[in-house]
Request: fold
Amino acid sequence: MSDQTAEPLVKVDGLHTYYGKSHILHGVSLTVGHGEVVGLLGRNGVGKSTTLKTIIGLVDAAQGSILFEGRSIAKMPPHKLAQIGIGYVPEDRRIFRLLTVMENLRTGLDRTGVTEARKKELLDKAFSYFPRLAERRNQAGGTLSGGEQQMLAIARAMMLEPKIILLDEPTEGLMPRMVSQIRNIVDVLHKEGVAILLVEQNVPLTLEASQRIYVMEKGEVRHHCAASEISVDHPVIKQYLGV
Amino acid sequence: MDAIAHFFGAIPFELLLIQTVNGIVTGMILALVASGLTLIFGIMDVVNFAHGELFMIGAYIGVVVLATTGNFWLALVISTLLVGLLGAAMQILTLRPLIGRDPLTTILATFGISLILQNYALWQFGPTSRKLPEPITSSFTLFYLQYPWYRIVITVISAAIIGSFWAFLKYSKFGVWIRATTQDRVMAQAMGIPVPWVYTGVFALGAAMAGASGMLFGPLGSINHTMGLDWVLKAFIVVVVGGMGNLGGSIVAAIFISLLEAYAAIWVSPAQAVIVSFIVLILTLLFRPTGLFVSISK
Reply:
């Protein structure tokens, strides 16, 4: 568990979100500590992705607070959030399909205050984790395979030098080999001190990669514990995630 | 068959060549106007009905600056910059508050602005047409014609503006931002791209291109408060034929339609030749509603 006395990196409290008239989040509360990997589990449509979208400001919170390093970010536009250190890797990856791999990375790299040397460092690092991207740097994002697009989406978020990455179902639809690569990169990011809020359907992977987990149902957090306290066949997992 | 061969054989080769040159000259100015229009549409989903008025204001600013300074090229630079600023102000004041609303609201807003600008020009400059003198008066012999060098210069300048704009889109940081925003506005924001300012910048750029083309075209026609109408109409045709939001398509379509009109003018009067554009438009809408050149850019 993270240090309880320290201010968490992200603190979400009593979040309510609507899509039009449908009430999606019914008071979600969660915290992510500095450098902590937190898993967010739950069946399809329980509001996991919406929670991430609300944090990054793509969906407005009707009620509740979102604190990042102690200050309220609920009214900040998404581009400001990216600038202060929140990276987002959406479920459908949302690669800029007509932009090359390099240009996709540049969208996060061409910020003010990043020196050329630093840009090169960040690129080299990303390419060392994802050599495939280096090979395909001048290829359009849309021509990459699903797994490569996922790598690009993660690498692109890394260009922002984020303090936290909101990672939405990164292994969905990927081949097992790709899944283990994604699993590795989560560890690498964790070692570098980047916090991750990981939304996943893959329970074993989430339990392995995270320090703590939250389980959601019907727009609410129903269970919260250390990842080590729970296993795949735990009753809670059966109740909220079993089929 | 003989009749057809006779018909085409009767067109003197020189005339065909002259009309080709004419078509390319008008085509390049049209491409410049249409580039701004298609850029604004492609990125912001805004159909800018005031585009022709920005063209007209560009020409009028040219008239005023030229009268004060006597330097045509300085006037070109100033009018381009001022119309760009006008575009930025227009976007911030009227279009930015409408982001996310029904597209009809932006159509009404830009249409309203076009009326305001037209009437402002009428009030400020009166109904009498003004003339902009050609900055280059020399000409060269093209068969039996004395062809003004200025027309060739306009073509080259237009091509240079479009070319540098293309390079800007391709290589600069802001260009990458613009293209990213066009493809996925939401993800662009999540990558820290200040999308509202990208919109303002794009609108300013599009407006500046309209202003520059108004000033460049000024010496070829007469300048009055309704001069934008013809151009914007043709630019809309070009944008639709080229594929809405497709920059390369618009440029090809501008030259294509201008050439067709120029050739048609061999047989009919130039005013009737305009019909050709409409025929192309209607055929495009019937058979290729996404534009003729979609496959080229994708």
User: Anything to note?
Assistant: The mean pLDDT of chain B is 88. Chain B touches chain A at residues 173, 176-177, 179-180, 183-184, 186-196, 298 (CB under 8 Å). DSSP finds 13 helices and two strands in chain B.
